[in-house]
Amino acid sequence: MIKVGDRLPAITLMEFVEVEGEGCSLGPNPVDVTTASAGKTIALFAVPGAFTPTCSAKHVPGYAENFSELKAAGVDEIWCVSVNDAFVMGAWAREQKTDGKVRMLADGDAAFAKATGLTLDLTGKGLGLRSNRYSMLIQDGKVASLNVEGPGKFEVSDAATLLAQIKA
What we know:
Radius of gyration: 15 Å
Number of strands: 9
CATH superfamily: Glutaredoxin
Structural class: alpha+beta
Shape: globular
CATH architecture: 3-Layer(aba) Sandwich
Largest sheet: 7 strands, mixed
Helix content: 25-40%
CATH topology: Glutaredoxin
CATH class: Alpha Beta
Strand order of the largest sheet: 2-1-5-4-3-8-9
Number of helices: 6
Strand content: 25-35%
Order of helices and strands: EEHEHHEHEHEEEEH
């Protein structure tokens, strides 16, 4: 399992972009984790699935609501990673109103989850291999803090906990 001091895996995630912008086409665009995290402080949190109850009611809203405080504390970007496709993550971003606050990144084949060692097998619940619920503070591509939840828990990966760690 990835730990504090480790570099993020050199994986490509996907991001759905609704509006054509600077060099970004419409539709899913690749996000090279190594390049995208270089020189930045990132609050990254991962969830088992888009549109799932805890993820939609607590996890994503907490980071969106704490956007300004996280930015003021030195966070350049907030990333939400889930084992879903980019289209689902794009629809979830619209529903959660995360535009301009949280980058909703798809780990469609669980490559990032596998590379970090933070997988969650929900095959028995019809969801297959997913990401565990966790948060990380990333500084220049390296893990500065890591908060992994126990099974079925939502106690340490919330925005308030990560914000307190940043300020400490």
